Automatic annotation (TrEMBL):
Keywords: Glycosidase, Hydrolase, Metal-binding. Belongs to the glycosyl hydrolase 38 family. The lineage of its organism: Bacteria, Bacillati, Cyanobacteriota, Cyanophyceae, Nostocales. Residues 507-585 form the Glycoside hydrolase family 38 central domain. GO terms for biological process: mannose metabolic process; oligosaccharide catabolic process. SMART domains: Alpha-mann_mid (SM00872). InterPro entries: Gal_mutarotase_sf_dom, GH38_C, Glyco_hydro/deAcase_b/a-brl, Glyco_hydro_38_C, Glyco_hydro_38_cen, Glyco_hydro_38_cen_sf, Glyco_hydro_38_N, Glyco_hydro_38_N_sf. Coiled coil: none annotated. This is Alpha-mannosidase. It comes from the Bacteria.
Amino acid sequence: MNYPTPPTHSQSLSDKIEQLRSHCQINILRSWVCWRGDLEITDVMQSNLLHWQPIQLNDKQQVVWNQGKHILWLGQKFTVPESLYDYPLSGLCARLSLTWWADGVEVYLNGNLLSTGDLFDCSPRLLLSQEVKSKDEFFIVLRLVSPEHCDGALMHSQMIFESGIVDDIDPGLIANELAIAQTRGKNLSSTEWNRLVTEIEELMNFSCGIKTQADWKSLLEKIRQTYLGIDQLTSIKNNKLFLLGHAHLDLAWLWPVQETWKAAQNTFESVLKLQTEFSELIFCHTTPALYAWMEEHQSGLFTQIQTQVKSGKWEVLGGFWVEPDLNLISGESIVRQLLYGQLYFLEKFGKISPIVWVPDTFGFCGTLPGFLTQAGIEIFVTQKLRWNDTSEFEYDLFWWQSPDGSQILSYMSPPIGETIDPVKMTDYLSTWQGKTGLANALWLPGVGDHGGGPTRDMLELARKWKNSPIFPETEFSTAENYWQYLKSSVAILPEKLPVWQDELYLQFHRGCYTTHADQKRWNRQCENLLYQAELFSTLAAAVYGLPYPKAEIQTAWKKVLFHQFHDILPGSSITQVYQDALPEWEQVQQLGSTILDRALRAIACNINLPEPPQPDSIPVIIFNSLNWERSEVVKIKPPHPQHWLIHDLDGNQLPHQITRDGLLFIPTIPSIGYQIYWLSPGDANGDVDENKCGQEFYLENEYLLVRVNAQTGDLESVFDKIQFREVLQGPGNQLQVFADKGQYWDAWNIDPDYQSKPLPPAKLQSIEWLEKGVIEHRLRVVRQIGKSEFTQDYVLQTNCPILKIENSVNWQEDQVLVKTSFLLNIHSDIATYEIPCGVIHRPTNPHTPSQQAKWEVPALKWADLTADTNTGNYGVSLLNDCKYGYDIKGNQMRLTLLRSPHWPDPQADRGEHHFNYALYPHTGGWQAAETVRRASDFNIPLNVLLNPETKKSPSPVFKNNSFLTLAADNLIITAFKVSENHPQSFILRFYECHGESANLPTLNLKSEFFTLGDPLDLLERNIHPTVNPIAPWKISTFQVLTQ
């Protein structure tokens, strides 16, 4: 039976705990005097604090000063008393315990710099003297710099006197033991509580008049004996806390990348030094990218780390190249994070990491287990869901299952950035044991975010508390050893662990799907570019023997992976981080474009051309990088202005349209292949569209009739001519604008109440036709939002059921959110969203708190709402080329376009933006409508080579110029590359995209050269043969061999 702690007993015990602490701790917060403005420390010492002003505490009993990098000096002189309430202080250690919220802090003792700190190293216990004497004086001065975005604060200032002997006791230690007893003894009976509290009160009454250290130690030992006889309290010794030194180190955030390298160096040097004095210390760190920098720039330090790894004192963890965002990056990016990260660990440290360690990433896509289990990962670790703002995540240890059926043991770790706090540690242990039934827990001491790691004080405290009879056993251990404990314990638990079959959605930081739209656009474009560059380079090497640019491709990929770090890509870093990122993205674009162009031209050089339809015709070779046939509009820019015609391979003239900046036509290109067309001079009176545009603002093709409201620029009607039904129930592409302020984490968080704060709607400035021809209708709408201008082109093309909306925006708003809204004529309880190599279904009418918390959700290239109507399934997909934040409620589908936070980058998103999205009404579900393919088409255009160098040969011209075809329509190729370990071997990767099984594909890769080889995992290691058919949502990798 459980007996709750009687309130009177609990309060009485709390009073005694505080009484004990008063014998060795002094709150000195009110004793500071201040000087506002900067000084030199020599001036401070010479002033002797004369003319400094007394501080004023706010309602929270804190010292507060203004935001904006303002400097506040605090000073005081502290004289050590002979005793505190008769407890003699002579011979004890003196420590200064501080907690601040400041961008930078310097702590001086008697004019000498004692310590520094910042927003993250913000709660130190600083040693002032190893052995004090009565009347010792400490002249303490703090220089504090407020954060740019919020007020600074000093929340805690305390002098602490404690024994410096490991196995000695003092009032503070006994007070903490009593606090542990108070937590652990919540289930004691009233009788037991009454006896315990009464005995302690009686003993405390004897403290009056005790003067000597010996008498005090005797009293404290007697107090300790009162609870040592209670098995429920001392049984904690049967539990164990595994300690693992840790230092979370953001590669960039409130500091630039260059500062990270120095912070990492300082952290690693500090750990290595402490390990020489504290042989028990084991430290862990993630991020192969960081180790690679150390290897290149600090080789001596890197060699020391390798030595400690071999000795078991340093653990490399993580698996990913960096700790990336895992909502916004593509499936292939996740693969490369794992591939390059694990192979680096294997090469430099002799093993891959079985643990993926992502404590600070802002949520996790539901398909992640399917990636991890194919990359040697056996346990997934985070703690970020502890940040949820709506509902508590219910599990600390569970199986996480992805849609393909893969399961991974998942562990919600203790918080990071913690110290050795015995009360907090035992409370965590009790909670952990109550949730999981496991007796042993992990604790991660170490300053983090900006590095730091374990401190001397933490390690000394760990040694001291190891001797406490009411504190669990402690032992430094590796995460892998703790994982082995978890694995063996799970096997014998009386109840099976729960299975989680959903995303791990962070109920926080929803603005990160949108903030710094430039980073999202660069990332999407570079992911797409590297896919194409790698694909065609592999084909050029495999089919035509060209050198494969492995080093260049790996360099480009690693730059992309680095900038997918969870504080860069989400848009939550300072201005300089993005100023530094821009040339890195540009280098990737330049390098990727060069590699792609080189590969395409190399392939073109081996193409046999037929006779041209005219002597002066120019060959046009169009390449398709996707694994299905495509027939869509391309634009050619002829070499000089004149009238031109377009012919196919057989010389047949094709419909085309002359525009202001080129020629449009619709080629048909086979799967991962090319086709040849001819650009020929034509007669001025030839088959050229005259682009006759009237004043009626409607666009039409064989699929859709679209009307635009001439007063607002919104879509007034989208009519499906095939199904003879209206798609909209209200305005479409309505720009909705909201105030988005009041959030401390400004770049991270959208105001949860933003919908109640609408701003004036967009004002139509102009509407005009740009094109209205046989290939394309293009209507331009210009609207004003505050100081910002939205230029939107509605584009409807022949043979295409998709309405495209191309955007050029000059965004100049402050703390404003803008969404595009489509009010649809269909209703469904479920919406579908693309996530890496899969989809997720989310409710449109949420009921539970956890569902309601998903009022802004991430998706990759598309989201879809499909309903069961009286004429069968009908749906609408909303595609995008670089946006990630969606919300679909009822029949309203919205895509978040832009934000404009102030902190930490006041320049975030201000300026020019270019992005596109598209409305795709369709019959049937998104699978039947091939939304996955249409979204890929929208993101990866066909590649056009105009008049490239080609082979002059009498050899026959092939009309089926497909290098690679997969027979199953529901398989999407994500990579075709050269093997990392075997240059003569090739790697093909694809995933099943419809949630349906697929027979093992028939591979057509110029089969006179290649055959399909063995199945591989994501690290390109052989695995047991895959059972046919391929499972729904499965990511599959195969070796492709030369014959």
